[in-house]
Amino acid sequence: MEIKQIEHGSKGAFVIEEGNERLAELTYSKAGDKLIIIDHTDVSDKLRGQGAGKQLVMKAVEYARASNIKIIPLCPFARSVFDKTPEIADVWNM
Asked: Which CATH code fits 4-91?
């Protein structure tokens, strides 16, 4: 699954698309230079059960590490991934 990052000003998203159809997305807002807030994750029924949501969260973690920033996971799904994955606590802004 290819995950693309899209940014427009202080808003961004990690998306999975097939053709012209968006099958999954994780949206975030930048809060200054050192923090992003994950506010929504959505996965199409076409990808359910394939781990697409977690892959989106992990892509956001990869981005945070590369950019030396922290994440606030306001989205309940993203928060559950952070709760269950202690190895990504380094980017969690608790």
From this structure: 3.40.630.30
Per the confidence metrics, is the pTM higher than 0.90? yes
Q: Report the alpha-carbon distance of residue 61 to residue 82 in Å, rounded.
A: 10
What residues does each domain of the chain span?
A: 4-91
Cα gap 36→58, rounded to integer Å:
14
20-42 residue pLDDT tens: 899 999 999 999 999 999 999 99
Q: Which two tokens stand for residue 7?
A: 């940014």
Question: What are the distances in angstroms from CA 94 to CA 55, 65, 85, 88?
Answer: 21, 16, 14, 12
